[in-house]
Amino acid sequence: MKAIILNQYGGPEVLEWQETAKPLPQAEEVLIKTTAIGINYASVLIRQGKYRAFYPLPAKMPAEIEGVIEAVGANVKHLTAGQRVTGIAGNGYAAFVVINAKDVFLIPPGLPPTQGLLSQGLTARYLLEQAKDYQSVIITAAASGVGSFAVQLARLKGGKNIIALAGNKEKVIYAKSLGATYACSYFDADWQEQIAKATNHTGADLILDAIGGDTGTTLAAMIAPGGTMVAYGNMSEKSMTIDGNTLALKANRITGASIYHATPENKQQWWHEMVTWIQEGKLKSEAAVFPYTAVAAAFRSIESRNATGRVVLTL
Ligand SMILES: NC(=O)c1ccc[n+]([C@@H]2O[C@H](COP(=O)([O-])OP(=O)(O)OC[C@H]3O[C@@H](n4cnc5c(N)ncnc54)[C@H](OP(=O)(O)O)[C@@H]3O)[C@@H](O)[C@H]2O)c1
Question: Per the database record, which ranges form the Enoyl reductase (ER) domain (predicted)?
Answer without folding.
Answer: 10-313
